Amino acid sequence: MLRLVWDQERPATELAEAAGLSKSAASQHLKLLRDAGLVTVRIDANRRLYRADLERVGEIASFLDEFWAAPLQRLRAIAESMAGDRLTARPKKRSAS
Description:
Layout: E1 10-11, H1 12-19, H2 23-35, E2 39-44, E3 47-52, H3 54-88
Antiparallel strand pairs: 1-3, 2-3
Helix pairs in contact: 1-2
């Protein structure tokens, strides 16, 4: 849903159709996105037009970058250590019987 409203405003009915959801299910998804501050809503006559709030999405992306930085560095170090261990391990010689 978020991807569908990334570049332009779209009405809820169009979003439901594009996502292959019922209007009710799409409405629930859009409410969650609204509550999370990821989309904005503009009322135009009897339609609600949704659009991604790129500033808020950027804030969340920055937070996640910081949140995952240390764990990903640790994971990288472990993976590099394991790869180094495999490179330095010597294969055992087979006995000729």
